[in-house]
Design brief:
The chain is mainly alpha-helical. About 85% of the residues lie in helices and about 0% in strands. The protein has helices at about 5-35, 45-55, 60-90, 95-105, 110-125, 130-150, 155-165, 170-205, 215-220, 225-255. The longest helix has about 35 residues, at about 170-205.
């Protein structure tokens, strides 16, 4: 085996092994700290107690993660579609760009904590629509901003070359502009994937039908089942990681085909 191959294997082992070792050390220190009596259990339950709650309530966690994941997925798809379409319109005309810029700036600072109860009341206590809209709002902003930036990265010389070839505006858009913007769009989608999960969780936490991870975290904390609440938090973290990794996998698959 060549030294270069050995170096690549060592590098891969370091990238995979280092986070695992760090995680084990953190969990071990956490367990020691929680069992020392210096911190009350309601402030920081031990990993062992959280693991026991995960094992006991795993079916409800999977069901809740499915509901929260569905709300986040709907919001992510809607927000991504609107973000891409909005960015295309903004790049096409200065008028639309001027109108959308302040709207996007305002949407980026909308407090989810205040918006969630309003939408839950507007669409009914038993509807998931408000939560999906909040997730869509959270996903829209990063997708729009990154896509709009990517659409402006096309070099003038490339546009001039397509004009010399008598290419239509659609051909120029498809072969030059969209290909240049694609990496920026996928960066926005990766950011939006995690934000959609977080926003759906926050929306569930502040009212509406109970059944998602956010609602179960709130219910568990209110009933002083703190280890159980942390167990649902762990499930939410795993769900967010799944969304992010799927978005990353799709980006790499599309990049290879390109």
């Amino acid at each position: 085996m060549s030294s270069a191959a050995i170096g690549r294997e060592a590098s891969t082992a370091e990238r995979v092994g280092a986070p695992i070792v760090l995680g084990v050390v953190v969990v071990a220190l956490w367990q020691l700290l929680a069992g020392s009596g210096l911190i009350e259990a309601y402030l920081l339950p031990s990993p062992l107690a959280i693991g026991q709650e995960i094992a006991e309530f795993l079916p409800s966690m999977l069901s809740a993660a499915g509901l929260t994941g569905l709300n986040a997925l709907v919001g992510l798809l809607v927000g991504t579609l609107l973000g891409i379409v909005g960015a295309l319109l903004a790049s096409a005309t200065r008028l639309v760009d001027g109108m959308l810029a302040p709207v996007v700036a305002a949407l980026s600072v909308v407090p989810i904590v205040a918006l969630a109860p309003v939408l839950n009341s507007a669409f009914g206590a038993d509807a998931q629509t408000g939560r999906q809209l909040i997730a869509a709002l959270a996903a829209f902003v990063p997708v729009f901003i990154n896509t709009a930036r990517g659409l402006r990265q096309t070099r003038p010389v490339h546009r001039d070359l397509m004009r010399v070839y008598a290419a239509s505006p659609w051909q120029t858009m498809r072969t030059i502009t969209l290909r240049t913007a694609a990496p920026f769009t996928f960066t926005g989608i990766r950011l939006a994937s995690s934000l959609a999960v977080i926003s759906a969780l926050v929306a569930e936490y502040f009212g509406g039908p109970r059944g998602g991870l956010g609602g179960l975290i709130s219910t568990s904390a209110a009933s002083s089942a703190y280890a159980r609440a942390w167990a649902y938090v762990v499930a939410a973290i795993v769900l967010g990681l799944v969304f992010y990794l799927v978005a990353l996998a799709i980006e790499r698959l599309v990049s290879r085909r390109r």
